[in-house]
Amino acid sequence: MSLKKKVIASCALLFIGLTSFLPAVNADVQTDAIQQIEAWRGNVEDVGFNYIFDGGDLHQTVARPKWDSTSAYEKTIQHAQNYRVSGWIAGANSYVGPQSNQSGGHYYDLAYNRSIYMVNFVREHGYSMAALNGSANPGQSNYVVGYWSPDSV
Question: 51 and 37 in one domain?
Answer without folding.
Answer: no
